[in-house]
Recover the amino acids of this structure.
């Protein structure tokens, strides 16, 4: 495999046949930093958190009105009317579960409203964002940076399985990750943790400190429980920064969760803290709701953080963002993504040193990544995920726009629906998760559909453009023996060289 092919496919998103092969692969990669546009037109025209949150606020207003009609107290729903998982009404999405008993008219109304909202959010906001992401990947002239955006979106994973997150999952990538992919890790970390998608996905918006002003008032009433939610604090330490088993304890998680109480979302929260959070800002805005916050100093990993409202948890974030364990965690994941399922120790050490010496400056880390010989070995080191394979195939065929619903359906069929990993850890980045026989068969079927829609593309001429210096003699012979252009193109898209990078 030539250096040009490595730059195009391992670092980039796949070659386009209508673009020249880079004569200076390293310069082509580093030159993208100055050219990257965090908000190209296709992203600028995509759904925004403000628009999605306004829809969510309207949906919750309808639900509250129906609950009041059914006789529930304001802000509290009877158990039978609690929001359920609803269909996204897009290909491959999970339908509404059947009710096990006849529902009252008000319950049916609530379910109908939820279903209608999910249909709008799934077909409009979610699918629209998927289409924008795919189109941006197809036409970008900075594919290395675009790949890094996708890497960080999976690192800070949210999942659109939850009703409130359906439409916000894409906006987090567009608003919290794209603007900071060439900045400091600390700034990206803060933007992600304060984004409504993350606050709602990991239930931070419903966390109420028992000793907070609101928690104390509710406890005095004696008829309702509120509690601390540790999900976001735990995932920040375990997944987003330090990594598992890196010296923090359960007590540190709890103390960090106490420090984060009050971090919530305006206008679209649920639970007893929703009213306190909704007094400031527009729907979807990050707000600090003091009535939800646990008073007092906090002790996290041996350091005392004085009481101070929103700044208390921010101080913890700032510290873990530049911790040595965080540097190792990030370096390991980047090395795994670019140099193989078993990250080379020397490369990990090199990236960690770049992270620490620069205070988490990401371009400094990326330059160390590009300079690592382990990332330039000639043999393929990674099996493409369904997303990577789909984008590289479409780029290779010079496709420049992505139909939103088609992309949602295709990625679901291939086993990697966009922003729906189903768990905060995100999608696996190892071959074992994607290279099974059934998964490869689905790619063969998709390749045949791609080929059937292409107009007499000669795979023999296309192969060296997409894989310069990397097409094996066996693949060259197989392409020469194909009976039709469509058969040859389908074979190229599932050749070993194309399935790997």
């Amino acid at each position: 495999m030539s250096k040009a092919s490595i730059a195009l496919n391992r670092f980039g998103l796949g070659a386009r046949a209508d673009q020249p092969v880079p004569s200076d692969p390293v310069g082509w990669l580093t030159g993208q930093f100055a050219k990257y546009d965090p908000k190209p037109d296709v992203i600028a025209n995509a759904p925004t958190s403000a628009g999605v949150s306004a829809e969510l606020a309207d949906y919750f207003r309808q639900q509250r009105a129906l609950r009041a009609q059914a006789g529930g107290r304001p802000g509290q729903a009877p158990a039978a009317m609690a929001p359920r998982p609803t269909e996204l009404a897009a290909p491959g999405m999970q339908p509404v579960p059947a009710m096990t008993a006849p529902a009252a008219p008000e319950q049916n109304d609530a379910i109908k409203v939820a279903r209608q909202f999910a249909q709008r959010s799934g077909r409009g906001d979610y699918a629209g964002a998927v289409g924008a992401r795919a189109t941006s990947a197809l036409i970008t002239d900075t594919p290395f940076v675009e790949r890094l955006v996708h890497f960080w979106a999976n690192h800070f994973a949210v999942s659109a399985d939850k009703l409130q997150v359906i439409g916000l999952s894409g906006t987090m990538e567009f608003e919290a990750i794209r603007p900071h992919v060439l900045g400091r890790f600390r700034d990206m970390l803060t933007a992600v943790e304060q984004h409504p998608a993350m606050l709602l996905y990991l239930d931070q918006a419903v966390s109420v400190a028992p000793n907070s002003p609101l928690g104390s008032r509710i406890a005095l009433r004696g008829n309702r429980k509120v509690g601390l939610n540790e999900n976001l604090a735990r995932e920040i330490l375990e997944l987003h920064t330090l990594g598992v088993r890196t010296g923090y304890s359960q007590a540190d998680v709890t103390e960090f969760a106490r420090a984060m109480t009050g971090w919530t979302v305006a206008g679209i929260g649920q639970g007893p803290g929703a009213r306190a959070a909704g007094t400031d800002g527009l729907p979807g805005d990050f707000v600090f709701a003091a009535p939800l916050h646990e008073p007092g100093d906090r002790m996290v990993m041996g350091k005392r953080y004085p009481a101070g409202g929103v700044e208390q948890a921010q101080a913890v974030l700032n510290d873990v963002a530049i911790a040595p364990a965080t540097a190792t965690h990030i370096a390991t994941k980047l090395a795994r993504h670019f140099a193989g399922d078993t990250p080379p120790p020397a490369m990990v050490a090199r990236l960690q040193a770049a992270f620490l010496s620069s205070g988490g400056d990401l371009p400094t880390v990326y330059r160390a990544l590009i300079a690592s010989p382990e990332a330039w070995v000639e043999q393929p080191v990674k099996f493409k995920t369904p997303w990577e394979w789909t984008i590289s195939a479409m780029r290779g065929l010079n496709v420049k726009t992505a139909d939103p619903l088609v992309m949602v359906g295709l990625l679901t069929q291939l086993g990697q629906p966009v922003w729906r990993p189903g768990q905060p850890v995100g999608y696996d980045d190892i071959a074992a998760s994607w290279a099974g026989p059934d998964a490869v068969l689905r790619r063969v079927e998709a390749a045949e559909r791609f080929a059937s829609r292409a107009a007499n593309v000669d795979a023999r001429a296309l192969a060296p453009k997409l894989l310069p210096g990397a097409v094996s003699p066996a693949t060259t012979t197989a392409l020469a023996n194909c009976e039709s252009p469509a058969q040859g193109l389908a074979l190229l898209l599932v050749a070993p060289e194309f399935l790997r990078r």
